[in-house]
Write a structure and sequence with these properties.
Mean pLDDT: 91
Strand order of the largest sheet: 2-6-5-4
Largest sheet: 4 strands, mixed
Strand content: 15-25%
Number of strands: 7
Distance between the termini: 21 Å
Number of helices: 6
Length: about 160
């Protein structure tokens, strides 16, 4: 499987670095199988940080081996379990089982608005899930442990 990481620099050797904000799947190294999503994120990061150049790092992972050797949490779509997991992580409240790899839909900007309305109590869980089902969601594969990162092989980096 080929995955991409968008940033303000090329990342040849991914590391687990504590983020200063709460993300969908918690702490980890975020990638996607969608190059366009990585490009978009790289541009946002470079602009937000006002440093570096928008860049996409490309990696390969043997998903069959990684899925056998790692503890994996996989969401097929934006269902109730995904919504509960993302909601807890976005609030910094997740205290459940720990995984090495987490794969599933990403709460992009459009989805983030819906999630914010849900977390604020404006939308019910049912309304939120209905709104998410009509969206074309991108995916993310998050490397949460060193064991998972060991399965990631850098291919090349490119400015975007």
């Amino acid at each position: 499987m080929r995955v991409y990481h968008g940033s303000n620099q090329i990342v040849e050797k991914p590391r687990l670095i504590k983020q200063n904000r709460w993300l969908d799947f918690g702490f980890g190294f975020y990638t996607t199988t969608n190059r366009e999503q990585a490009v978009s994120f790289a541009r946002k990061v470079a602009q937000k940080r006002a440093s570096g150049e928008p860049s996409v790092s490309v990696y390969e992972i043997d998903e069959k081996v990684a899925w056998q050797e790692c503890r994996v949490l996989e969401f097929a779509g934006p269902d109730e379990a995904w919504l509960d997991f993302v909601s807890l992580n976005r609030q910094g409240l997740y205290q459940g089982e720990q995984f090495d790899l987490i794969y599933g839909p990403v709460a992009n900007d459009d989805v983030y608005t819906t999630l914010t309305l849900y977390l604020a109590g404006v939308l019910s869980k049912e309304q939120t899930l209905a709104a998410l089902k009509i969206r074309d969601l991108y995916n993310q594969l998050v490397f949460v442990s060193e064991r998972a990162l060991a399965h990631l092989t850098f291919v090349h980096g490119e400015g975007v």
